[in-house]
Recover the amino acids of this structure.
């Protein structure tokens, strides 16, 4: 039976490739994007190769989500009126790439508010739409942990959701006050790079979400260094994976046991604890 799977940020890059694969697997794909133009462009791209594809699009903003359009859409589908899976792909690079230090630090704050707070509130808002055995994949990254002191890693490992919120807001405060971004903050024991820290928070959130919804499979996945609109202009372009490789890893993660981190084609490791030091 076809399943209904939602992909946030499904109009381009990894999200769009995930949409294509979901359709190829015989499922109903629902993409979210911030504008009608983004949705329209994605629809045209998908239907060029799959003219009768069961694909739908809704306008959705992670920071200010409106769930009413999703509720109306699900009520019209011939399949079950629930979501069987969610791929939390939407996010922003914020203060990346490394080589440029943004003069406006609002980009860094926006990374935290979108990639962590936004994903968190969207997932909570989707709870009532999700089947009891649904899967959730949080698209994340692996490398930031090495930039945190042991004490801060320990704090992150033991954090509940309230503590994660506190750590996120503390980071934003330090980020604005620091003489320069992307510097090591001795007092807090963290590296002031917002994109990576937002994903470290998301990895811990993945574990907490699995505890909250034990019947569901909730995983973090790093698809590796992938050629997407987000990585244009960044260094090491020759090392980039294709979006097809990245999307394959994300969909594979959806089949795995929850509360774990999956780094597949790029790193050759899966099922590890999201809070371990990935470089060991």
């Amino acid at each position: 039976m076809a399943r209904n799977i939602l992909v946030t940020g499904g109009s381009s890059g990894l999200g769009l490739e995930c949409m294509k694969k979901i359709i190829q697997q015989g499922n109903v794909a629902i993409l979210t994007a911030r504008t009608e133009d983004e949705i329209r462009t994605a629809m045209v791209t998908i239907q060029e190769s799959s003219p009768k594809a069961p694909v739908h699009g809704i306008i959705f903003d992670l920071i200010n989500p409106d769930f009413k359009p999703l509720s109306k859409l699900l009520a019209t589908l011939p399949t079950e009126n629930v979501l069987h899976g969610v791929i939390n792909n939407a996010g922003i690079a914020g203060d990346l790439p490394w080589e440029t230090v943004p003069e406006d630090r609002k980009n860094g704050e926006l990374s935290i508010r979108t990639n962590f707070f936004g994903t968190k509130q969207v997932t909570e808002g989707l709870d009532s739409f999700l089947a009891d055995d649904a899967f959730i994949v949080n698209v994340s990254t692996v490398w930031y942990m090495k930039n945190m002191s042991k004490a801060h890693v320990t704090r992150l490992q033991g954090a509940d959701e309230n503590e994660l919120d506190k750590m996120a807001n503390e980071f934003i405060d330090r980020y604005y006050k620091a003489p320069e971004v992307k510097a090591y903050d001795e007092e807090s024991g963290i590296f002031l790079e917002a994109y990576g820290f937002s994903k470290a928070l998301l990895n811990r959130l993945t574990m907490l979400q699995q505890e909250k919804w034990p019947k569901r499979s909730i995983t973090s996945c790093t698809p590796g260094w992938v050629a997407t609109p987000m990585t244009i202009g960044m260094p090491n372009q020759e090392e980039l994976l294709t979006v097809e490789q990245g999307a394959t890893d994300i969909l594979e993660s959806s089949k795995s046991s929850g509360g774990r981190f999956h780094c597949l084609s790029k790193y050759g490791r899966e099922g590890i604890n999201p809070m371990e030091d990935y470089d060991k």
The helical segments are 13-24, 36-49, 68-76, 106-126, 150-157, 161-177, 194-212, 243-253. The chain is about 40% helix and 20% strand.
